[in-house]
Amino acid sequence: MAIRRLFVGGNWKCNNTLAQTKDLVNSVLNKLHFDPSKVDVVVAPVFLHVPWVAEHIQKPVQVSVQNTSLTGTGAYTGEISVAHVKDLGLNWAILGHSERRQYYGETNEVVANKVKYAVENGLDVIACVGEHLADREANQTNQVVEGQLEAIRGKLNEAQWEKIVIAYEPVWAIGTGKVATPAQAQEVHEFIRSYLTQKVSQNVSQKTRILYGGSVTEKNAGELIHQKDIDGFLVGGASLKPAFADIVAACN
Ligand code: PEP
Predict the structure, then answer these.
(1) What is the number of domains present in the chain?
(2) DSSP 96
(3) N or C: the chain end with fewer CB closer than 10 Å?
């Protein structure tokens, strides 16, 4: 088991009616038992559900948004700014999720600028990286992940890494039921940690939490969490179900 405080994130994506979200909070999240000194539990609802969730969820569970705007408040139709997130008393944003990269054209540069803007304006960020299947098959996993990290590193000073959690999410494992084996995940997590040692600092490398995401379930969480460099999970599909409680329990 890793030496850092563990982290379990639930990315609810664009799912659930408000009634379903209320039911998930009342029947799963508000019944969780965990020690917040050992594990952070953070859920990211649909934007429109965030205020209700933030008000009604039990306090040790933190609430995140799934995206933030590259710009501040003002004439930016359709955007939600970091200032609006902070105004609700929230501290977390997921940025650079592969679905944002794939469907909404977010390049490494856009993601890195969003991360910089969010951190400079007081948010903690779950920054997502990960390769496509074709990258893995071409033995390019490390290069792709390094490129994503390099873009972010170029925008942050060393102290700002305190506000970053990295989520390694191989795109081929997201929502597909194809989970990376513990060895495959550990290999990339170790690569990310050594990247941080070489390119940022030993201190940042030792302190930064690196999450695994990609078809995590209550069945595979126990084995994955025992890998040395896996500090928790970013969970999609299973975070919408009672199974999320078992994943948190595996980290507690
Ligand atoms: C995710 O979208 O962050 C994710 C990991 O999804 P899933 O757990 O459904 O693969």
Answers:
(1) 1
(2) S
(3) N
Q: Which atom of ligand 1 is nearest to the CA of 239?
A: 8
The ligand 1 atom nearest the CA atom of 97: 3
Contacts for 85-88: CB closer than 8 Å, 24+ residues apart: 85/123, 86/121, 86/122, 86/123, 88/50, 88/51, 88/54
Residue 184: which of 234, 156, 220 has the closest Cα? 220
Question: Token pair of 93, please?
Answer: 């944003």
Residue 174 in contact with ligand 1 by CB distance below 6 A: yes
In 96-230, which residue ranges form alpha helices assigned H by DSSP? 98-103, 108-120, 133-137, 141-153, 182-199, 202-207, 221-224
| Residue span of the structural domain in which 230 resides | 6-250
Interface predicted TM-score of the whole assembly (ipTM), two decimals: 0.97
Residue 104 lies in a domain: yes
Ligand 1 centre distance from Cα of residue 182 (Å): 16
pLDDT digits (tens, 9 = 90+) for 137-173: 999 999 999 999 999 999 999 999 999 999 999 999 9
Task: Quote the tokens at residue 146.
Answer: 């390094």
